[in-house]
Amino acid sequence: MNLTALIANSLWLGSSFPGFLRFRRALHRPQEAQIKLLLRCLSENATTAYGKAHDFDSIRNYQDFAQKVPLVDYDDLEPWISRIKTGETAVLTQDRVTHLIPTSGSTGGRKLIPFTQTLQQEFNQAIGPWISDLYFKCPTIGLGSSYWSVTPLASSLETESPVVPIGFEDDSSYLGGSRKRLVNALMAVPPELRLVDDIAAFRYVTLLCLIRQPDLRLISVWHPSFLTLLLDSLKTNWIDLVNDVRKGSCKYASKIPAPIIASLTPCPKRARQLKDANPNHPRSIWPHLQVISCWGDGHASGPANDLGQRFPGVSVQPKGLLATEAFVTFPFRGFCPLAICSHFFEFIDDQGRIHLAHELVQDAEYEVVVTTGGGLYRYRLNDRIKVSGFLAATPSFKFLGRNGNCSDRVGEKLSEAFVGRAIQEATVSLPESPRFALLAPEAADNGFRYTLFIEGKVDEGLAHRLDQALKQNPHYLYCRKLGQLQSPGVFEIAGAGFEIFASHEMLRGKRLGDIKPCPLSIQTDWAKRFQSKANEIAPSRASGTDGRLDI
């Protein structure tokens, strides 16, 4: 038994329990809980610049709110957020904006979402019930350590020094205060690992820290492919890893921060245990592992099922819908209920009508709109959900995907508008404009890659320029950095690119007059449909007979 983990888990559970009780009561009265949240948020921010512009002070009910405050997307809020970025206060919230959190944009590469102490408290109003329910379901989780995936720092794209910091130093900062310290005490992997920039070293040290933990009980990652890639590295590095556990060393010592090196004390007993383990069967390495928390809906369902096969007997728990902007749903009592104690939600149906949480219908599909303590008012998340059931009177949801044309295989969240701009940026230096260009995901070794199917003249720098343009999206950048996405390829189309594209779309039921050139497809079989120029490509430039270039 890990005494430190037991104490930290007990304290975290104790601090989360009041939120658990509050949420459980609210499940029976979602309308009351939601309206109370809305009116308090508007009252607290009535004297902000945005509150004055939309007359928050006169709003007395939801009908007033819907009449006076418009539905918005990020482009509508960007001028207000730019004022925050320069240091202006009381723009969207009276609460001070502590950070601006980068996430992917629909048209631009990046959005900056204001983060405040109130928003942090709203997140904890969802995390508390989720953690409490998890511990009640699996009480012995508290007897061991946990792994909450640490995201390595991406190279900064900033060309200026904003007054408000952009991004967090580590993921546990979302919790804040004592909860942040408790999570760090439970972590099987030290937060300093985020500073490791070399992806091979990052994976190796992560595995080294994890296999040193015989009592690992919980693994929490975002996309399940992150963990499957780690497990693949486990097989190829097994001998070195066991030797480093025994000696308290690390073959990447020159690339990791000193605090991590100091924590790697010799563990000969654990090394002897690992000699009987099989890297092809990770359950033999972590026999006490009980729960893997990860995305499990949409495109993540397949990789999540793969994790279940790799860890027989371990519960793979889908996370629900958590965005940078808001906590929408979370696992609770076998459902994924709406986080009704966190933010105020509205829902748009296919006819454009707006509904509140207590008005939703079983099996109906909606777009999510959120109002938060971070200064987002009637903000369209562009996430599409389906009502999968009800917990008491509160709806539970299944995440279907992003609204519109958006590709999100491993968490990269590439939108059509952004991809169009990235292709334009990557191809502007070509001798002539492409006659046809389409970006689409394709299966690759250890995951996916994006391929640009292009008709026209190309050069050897095209794939690199495309990669750099796509990296303006922070989610794509992280997926590339973690190895979940391989470097993009280029497929030179011999001719008739749009005609082939249009023919395929007609087979899917579209009318020819409705088909327009599109920069992004979520389908993965375009290499089989387009005719390549492989026979016209010099052997030194071709990666194979399919016409794809690895530049």
Report on the structure:
The structure is a single chain. With 551 residues, the chain is of the alpha/beta class. Among the domains are: 344-402, no CATH class; 407-549. It is built from 17 helices and 17 strands. The protein has helices at 3-26, 30-44, 49-53, 62-68, 74-85, 117-137, 177-186, 199-211, 224-236, 238-247, 258-263, 268-275, 301-310, 416-427, 462-470, 474-482, 497-507, and strands at residues 97-104, 110-116, 146-148, 218-220, 291-294, 315-318, 344-348, 354-355, 365-371, 379-391, 394-402, 406-407, 414-415, 436-444, 447-455, 485-492, 548-549. α1 packs across α6. The longest helix has 24 residues, at 3-26. The protein is globular. The relative contact order is 0.11.
**Helix share, percent:** 25-40%
Q: First CA to last CA: what distance?
A: 52 Å
Based on DSSP secondary structure assignment, what is the total number of beta strands?
A: 17
Instruction: Describe the strand arrangement of the main beta sheet, using strand numbers.
Output: 8-7-9-10-11
The biggest sheet, with number of strands, parallel, antiparallel or mixed sense and barrel status, is: 5 strands, antiparallel
Radius of gyration: 25 Å
Oligomer: single chain
Number of helices: 17
- Low-pLDDT runs: 154-159, 535-551
**Percentage of residues in DSSP E strands:** 15-25%
Helix and strand content put the structural class at alpha/beta
